[in-house]
Design a protein that fits this description.
The protein has helices at about 40-65, 70-80, 85-95, 110-120, 125-145, 150-155, 175-185, 190-200, 205-210, 255-265, 280-300, 320-330, 340-350, 355-365, 370-375; strands at about 5-10, 15-25, 30-35, 215, 220-225, 225-230, 235-240, 250. The chain has about 375 residues and is mainly alpha-helical. It folds into 3 domains: about 1-65, no CATH class; about 90-155, no CATH class; about 175-365, hpI Integrase, Chain A (Orthogonal Bundle), CATH 1.10.443.10. Strands 1-2-3 form a 3-stranded antiparallel beta sheet. A 3-stranded antiparallel beta sheet has the order 4-5-8. The longest helix is centred in the first third of the chain and has 24 residues, at about 40-65. The radius of gyration is 27 Å and the shape is globular. The relative contact order is 0.08.
């Protein structure tokens, strides 16, 4: 029956519900309008159906008159509204490549339009990969909005000629970077941050969200259960990490303790924060990381104040994520020795075993003694 769908307000003697009015709030969530009826739940249902019909009609008209470019921008602002700021900016940056389609309506987009944009950027294979990924998501969204048919989408995405692209291999720390790390004279905060990355393999967002109570020194584990994300440059604590797999406990190596423990125990709230105690901002993190890179280069022999023989900065492209890949690489070296499994690495790393095998399988294989295994198997 209709009345099971709606709530009844005893005080006001009316049936009521909330219905999407076809608009979105600042965060990209659907805005819902309060609708009520003092007559009956059936009367309310008729009002609800009328509202839905009006929304569907208006949305179809508004979207169908949009250019592909305008629809793409609208799609980013709505579908990526809850993503991290960097992700949303990356999508908006990619969508700019569709600005030449500002005079092409969303329903009139063709395979040739897509191919032309790829051709115009063929000298930048990585950019073409981002364009292709974003274009595919947009046209599939248009199909869900009934602006393109599924057959249209299939035709748009088939047989697109792409420039050759070789994915940059995710690298561990170089010998120069490792040597500088162990020699560097960091201040206490930078030392704690960089060695947490080195010894725990955390994502940057996870490290920035750590608090003293996350460290169990007696059992030598750190509990990872939140992250700091940047919204309009401001740091915001999110009460969960990147994924469900990200909620985990990571063992504390003995070698990490002298670099980190004193700073952690002297902290309150967030370990890495701004002067007011709030989460570190995007610009604040950049300043900290620049300071870390400078200290590493000085340890490598760079003399910033020297007029002669300054020596070049050899450590330039190091990121927090390289520390994470280094951590996983070092653990993968232990697999052939029987010290750990890829399943356990994935649990500690906060990702899937499939990811570990896909990215680091060559590391495991190069350490395996195939010849020794064959000889051992066929000994008399």
């Amino acid at each position: 029956m209709a009345n099971t769908k709606y709530k009844f307000n005893e005080k006001r003697k009316e049936w009521y519900t909330l219905v999407w009015d076809g608009t979105y709030d600042a965060k990209g969530k659907k805005h819902r309008k309060f609708i009520s009826s003092k007559k009956s739940s059936r009367d309310l249902e008729e009002k609800v159906n009328a509202m839905k019909a009006a929304v569907n009609s208006r949305s179809a008209v508004e979207y169908s008159s949009m250019s592909f470019y305008d629809y793409a921008v609208d799609w980013v602002n709505i579908s990526k509204a809850t993503k991290e700021e960097y992700t949303k900016k990356q999508y908006l940056g990619t969508v700019k490549y569709f600005s030449s389609l500002d005079n092409i309506k969303i329903g009139e987009i063709r395979h040739s339009h897509f191919q032309r944009i790829i051709n115009e950027n063929a000298e930048h294979p990585r950019t073409c990969q981002l364009i292709s990924m974003t274009f595919r998501q947009i046209v599939k969204a248009a199909a869900r909005d009934h602006l393109l048919s599924r057959l249209d989408v299939d035709d748009l995405l088939q047989d697109v000629s792409m420039p050759h692209y070789e994915r940059t291999e995710r690298r561990p720390l170089s010998t120069i970077e490792k040597d500088a790390l162990m020699k560097a004279d960091f201040d206490m905060r930078n030392e704690a941050f960089v060695f947490i990355l080195y010894y725990l393999g955390l994502r940057k967002s996870e490290a920035l969200a750590l608090m003293p109570e996350d460290f169990d020194w007696e059992n030598k584990v750190v509990r990872i259960r939140r992250a700091v994300i940047f919204v309009s440059g401001k740091g915001t604590v999110r009460d969960y990490p990147k994924s469900h797999n990200g909620i985990r406990s990571v063992p504390i190596p003995d070698a990490m303790i002298p670099h980190v423990k004193d700073f952690v125990e002297a902290s309150e709230g967030l370990i890495f924060r701004n002067r007011s105690g709030d989460p570190m901002s995007f610009s604040g993190y950049d300043r900290m990381w620049d300071s870390i890179i400078t200290t590493l280069n000085i340890a490598d022999g760079y003399k910033p104040n020297a007029k002669k023989d300054r020596k070049p900065r050899r450590i330039t492209d190091l990121t927090a994520h390289i520390f994470r890949h280094n951590y996983c690489t070092e653990l993968c070296y232990m697999v052939p020795k029987g010290h750990i499994t890829t399943k356990k690495i994935a649990q500690i790393f906060g990702d899937t075993e499939e990811m570990v095998l896909k990215i680091y399988s060559h590391i495991v294989e190069e350490k395996e003694d195939a010849a020794g295994a064959v000889n051992a198997a066929f000994q008399n």
